[in-house]
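User: Teach me something about this protein's shape.
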Amino acid sequence: MMLTWLPFAVGAVGLVCTQVQAGPVQVTVLDHSGQAAADAVVFLESPAAQAAAKPLKQVEISQQNKTFVPAVTVVTTGTSVHFPNRDTVRHHVYSFSPVKVFEIKLYVGTPASPVVFDKPGIAVLGCNIHDHMLAWTVVVQTPWFAKTGSNGVAQLPQVPPGAYRLRVWHPALPVGDAALDQALSVADRGATEVKVRLPASARMQ
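Assistant: First, the predicted structure itself:
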């Protein structure tokens, strides 16, 4: 009986020892002058990443003090986004971007039906009543994405090893420009760190 089970035990140990391990990826985004760029969207693309992506839950972009909060939102394809109006005035939210064309006419409170972002790309949001209101929804086909903080750093905690395309987008990039793109190899075990500098055409506020 012991001899019968011994090969299985050895095989199981070997399987555990050869398993790959996901590791952290840190991306620092700088503007063209070398200063930290906040609100940059960082994401990793690959066939495996696209297969692993799933719609997010409980995502909202609210209107508060006549401002979209947050100004930059990242979602995966198929995600439903709610647009609660927490102001005492009515808003008229819209997007004419090819990625998602929609319109929520004058309203207060939270519309019953969320907006489903079903195509990858950048959707620019506005308000027909308050022209200064502007926001962006970045729709990605990967579960490995993050947004930079005030220090310009984005953390992707658990990325499986493999070959990816690192994409970086920032609201300061000219309208219509694609996200910056470069190859990135994530090794088995250990951390991966990379710095990305925005081009001079990116006009920071």
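Now, about its shape. The chain has two domains: 22-52+143-205, 54-140. The chain has two helices and 17 strands. If you'd like, I can walk through any region in more detail.
User: That's plenty for now, thanks!
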